[in-house]
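Q: Give me the 3D complex with 9MR.
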Amino acid sequence: MLPEGARADEAVPRLREIGMRKNLLVGSAVSYRELQQPAFTNLLEEQASIVVPENEMKWQIIHPEPDRYDFTRGDALVTFAQEHGQKVRGHNLCWHNQLPRWFGEMATPQNAADLLRQHIAKVAGHYAGRIHSWDVVNEAVRVEDGRPDGLRNSQWLQLLGPDYIGIAYRAAAQADPKALLTYNDYDIEQDGAKFDAKRAAVLHLLQRMREQQIPIQALGLQSHLHAAPELPDWTALHRFMEAVEKLGLDIFVTELDINDSKLTGDPGERDQMVAEWYGSYLRNVLQHRSVKAVLTWGLTDHDSWLNSPNQRHTDRPLRPLPFDADLKPKPAFYAMVKAISEAPARA
Ligand code: 9MR
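A: Here is the predicted complex, encoded as C-alpha cells.
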C-alpha cells in the first residue's frame, strides 16, 4: 500500500544512491526481529549501503557460554548485507554492557586478558574480511567516574586497568587486518560543559592510543542527540573533529537518532523540529570529508531503543528516526536527503 499523500509515480528517494555519489556510506542498525519482516527488509535494501547489528554481535548473544559461540543472528545480517551489496559494521568487541552472566562469575585479573583476546580472535576471526569497521572498544570514557584519565570505571578497567584497550585493539588487528578499527562513544556532539568534558577526555584517549601505537583508524560519533527548541551552533564539535582529523582518523556517525522527549507541540510540529536537527547536524558534520559513513540507530520509530519500556520517559511514543512506525518517510528523512545531496564529495 502506498503511504498517504504519495502518488504511484512518486518514488521515495534512496539514501544509499544519494550517498554513493558523495562516496558516503549511509545506513542503519538492524535487529534480528526486523530482518524477518519483508516490508522492513525491502526498505533496508533500498535505503542502506551499510548496516550494523543492533545487538546480535554483542558478547551476551554471540558468546552465551564460556565455550560456546552462537553466530546465527550475526550471520543472518552479514548474509543479507552481502546479498544486497551492503557493507557491515561490527558492534562491538569490548563493552561494559550486555556481557553474559558467566563472564562476571568467571573473570579474574589473571584470566581476563586471555578471555578478551580469545573472544576477539574468535568473533573478529569468524567475520574476517567481511566487516567494514569494528567498534572494538565501546564507551570506555565516563568523566563522572572521576578518574584523571577520564576512563570509565568498568569491569574491564577493574580487571585489567587501562591496558585492556590496547589488548583489545591489537587482538582485533590480528584477527581482521582489513576492518577499520573504531573507537565508539556518545555525548560528544552537543554544546555545553558536559559535552566539553567528554570531548576532552575522548581526545585524550585517542592521543594516548596514538602515542602507544595502538592500531586504530576511526572514531565513531554515536550521535544520540537530544532536541531542544534552540539548535546548537556546533562550534565545539567542529574544533573537536579537526583535532581528531589531525590524528589521522576517519570519522563515522554510528548511531544517529534525535530524542524529541523535551519538545512540545503535536507530532507534526515535533517532527519538523527533529528534521531541523537532522539537517543542521548532518550539514555540519558532513562539511568534514573525514566523515565516511552515517548510520541511524534503527530506521523506524516503532523499533527505536528510545521506545523500549525501560527507556521512555514520556507517556507518548518518541519519533527519533527517519521513518515512522508504518515505514513512511518523515521530515527527518527528507532532511537527510537534502543534507547528503548538498554535502561535498568525499575522497
Ligand atoms: O539499541 C540497543 C538496545 O536494544 C539494547 O537493549 C541496549 C543495551 O544497553 O543497547 C542498545 O544499543 C546501544 C549501543 O549498543 C551502544 N550505544 C548506545 C545504544 C543505545 O543504548
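A quick observation: The chain has one domain: 15-342.
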